[in-house]
């Protein structure tokens, strides 16, 4: 009995050792697996980041394509606008040709018979032509102003001279000056307008005259201080 017990004790000891070494082996394997899982995970994160970057790049390309399309559309509009303008100019040239014919006729008639009716008609034509040009110039100014506003974004319409579309400023050239009719335009535009009608200025918006002299500019035309201080 004593011997049998000894035998069991011995075999138990050797079994424990065997299990312990197996356990060590398994733990080692487990560590290896854990490490490869971790590296797999980090690779996954990298792939995910790459995917995100790729997606963002794609969005960027798409936006670029949209922008390019818009630019193309703008260019097309500009081209169309130019074509329209060209055909308007061609019509103008036609009208001017007729005008010259009328003027020639008038000149030849003046030499022989003076006809006040022809002269009156001629003057009327001239006036209507001038009015047409004035309206067209105003339209172009409005367009220029709109374009300027778009470009400068936050600049308000009332801070720009409606003739040249430059911003008013407290300088000699860009000072806002009030005409007798109440319209405000910049000083450099006033000087240009004054050159057309000496001693007075005709408002480009309503044709109202304002008395004006170069030396008394501060008396004739008040500065619009409200506009300057807004
Ligand atoms: Zn006016
Ligand atoms: Zn101006």
From TrEMBL:
Keyword hit for Nuclease: no
Record keywords: Coiled coil, Metal-binding, Zinc, Zinc-finger
Source lineage: Eukaryota, Metazoa, Ecdysozoa, Nematoda, Chromadorea
RING-type domain boundaries: 161-207
Domain of life: Eukaryota
Organism: Caenorhabditis briggsae
Annotated SUPFAM superfamilies: RING/U-box (SSF57850)
Sequence intervals crossing the membrane: none
PROSITE patterns: ZF_RING_1, ZF_RING_2
Pfam short name (any one): zf-RING_UBOX
GO MF terms, alphabetically ordered: zinc ion binding
This protein's name: RING-type domain-containing protein
This protein's record includes keyword Metal-binding: yes
Ranges in coiled-coil conformation: 9-43
InterPro entries to which the protein is assigned, alphabetical: E3_ubiquitin-ligase_RING (IPR052667), Znf-RING_euk (IPR027370), Znf_RING (IPR001841), Znf_RING/FYVE/PHD (IPR013083), Znf_RING_CS (IPR017907)
